[in-house]
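Hey L., structure's done. Input below.
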Amino acid sequence: MKIAIIGTRGIPARYGGFETLADKLSSRLADRGHEVTVYCRRLFVRPEDSFDRRIRRVVLPSISTKYLDTFSHTLLSVLHVLFTDVEVVLLCNVANSPFAWIPRLFGKPVILNVDGLDRKRRKWNWWGRLYLLACELIALFTPTILVTDAQTIKSYFWKRYRKRSEMIAYGAEVPPGVAGLDGFPLLPRRFLLYVSRLEPENNPEVVIRAFGKVATDWPLVIVGGNPYNEHYVRHLKSIADPRVVFTGPVYGDRYWQLQINAGLYVCASEIGGTHPGLIEAMVAQNAVLYCNTPENREVVGDCGIPFQLRIEELTTRMRGALQNPYLRAQLGVRSRKRAETIYGWERIAAQYEALIYRTHGYTLPDRHSTPAPELPSWSGEGPNREVT
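Output:
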C-alpha cells in the first residue's frame, strides 16, 4: 500500500519519539513491500542526511516557533497529500487531530497516534494547554482509528470519553556493530546516563541536583537539548557540578554507544506514554532508575528501580544502585529480555501494518496481534527520492 507519515519533524530521527517511530516504522513497512512517504520539516533536514533511500521524503517549510511549528507544517503536509496517490495517512501527535478529517474527505483513511497527554506538559502556558485539551476532544471524532502508545493512555481515553483506541507501543533494538565510546571521554559502564529533551516535565533539574549529593567519581551524562528554550538549558548547566557532561542531542550509532556502555540509566519523565529512551536503555541491557508513574511502570515491570520525584529519594536510589554492581547486572539482563520480548520493532511494525490494512477493510493475519506474555516478576540502498 501507499502510506504517508505526517506530523513528525521527519527522518532521519533527530528530535524525539515520533521521529524515531517514523524512521524505524517506514523502513520496516518498506521491507514488507509498501511505498512510504515521510513528510519532513525543512529546519530538520540536512544535505548529508543518511536514511533509507527506499523512503520518499517530502520536505516542506514551517513557522519555526514553539506554538506554530507543528501546526503550520502539518497543515501544509495534509494539503499536499491530498494531491498524491497515498492510500493511508499515519498522523502523529494529538495536536494534529484538527487536520485528521481532511484526508478522509478525499478517501484517505487516517490513523492518529496521540502519544501521551501532551496538555499536561509544563512547557505550555494556559492557552497551549487549553488548545491541546480541545485537540484531545477533537481526536475522538476526526481519525479513522485512534492509536495510543501505552495501556495507561488507552485506559484514560476509555474511562474518560468511552473512546476505544488501539494500543501500539514504541520499539527498540541495538543496531549491529556498535561497540566502543569513540570520541567520548568516558569509561565503559562507569557513568550515569540521562536522555531526554531538556524540558521541565522531564525533570533534568531533579536529576542534576540529586546527583550533586552523591559521592562518586562516575560522571552524569546528559543527552538532549531544547531548541525552543535555550534559557532553560543554560540554567541547567549553571546548577550542574563539574562531573555533569552535557553532550547536546546525539543520534545514531554515537547515541547507542552511550546506551550500551552506560552503567546506570535514569528516566525522570513524568508526562507522556511510552518513553522511547527508557525502552532503548532496557534493550541495551542497562539497569534503570525510573520515575514511578503508571506509564513507566508499565514499561519496566519489575526490571528496574522506581523513585518518587523528590531529590532526597532519587539521591538515595542512586547511591544504592552505584554501590551494588550485582544488582545492576541482574536488572540489566532482565530489562533486556523484557524489552526484546515486548518492544521489538518487528512486532511494532506488524501491528501497524495490520492496522493500515484494516482501514481499507482487509484483515491481515498478524502474528503479533495478541499482547506479548508478561515476563516473570523479579523482587539503505536505492535511489534518493525526495521532494522539496
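Residues 265 and 288 are 5 Å apart (CA to CA). The mean pLDDT is 89.

-- N.
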